[in-house]
Amino acid sequence: MNEQKKQDSPFIYRNYVRWPIIVAMILVVAAGLAYIFVIDPTQAGSPTVPCLFHRMTGLYCVGCGNTRALHALVHGEILEMFGYNILFPFVVVILAWCYIVGLTTLLWRRRILWLPEGISNRTLVIVFTVVILFAVLRNIPMWPFTILAP
Known about the structure:
This protein has helices at about 1-10, 15-40, 50-55, 65-75, 80-85, 90-110, 120-135. By secondary structure, it is mainly alpha-helical.
């Protein structure tokens, strides 16, 4: 019976698969946070990846300032984080929630936290509109839009 249950369970829930994934998930996030804690992306010559869109066009993309915002977040500088990219906190919350859902699902072999099965078209249109407006407005070189630039 136990052997039959092992074969019926999804491949990802088998211990020899899920534990290395769980450990890797924790180590990768911890290493990334430690790296961004130690490296200051605001310093000249910082070993972080520059924004290629900004380098090629001179315009700020939607993600410009995210590395600096994460650096500020891990240092507890919340107001500074908002100054780099105002959309960043929303993205971090969504990504952190998805990470926690994935991790707990692997740990308990079933989903124990809520995650929507789908996203409505209306929600997608609203999010897409906000992102596009943000990208356009942060590139207008006059006050108050300059506040949105990183």
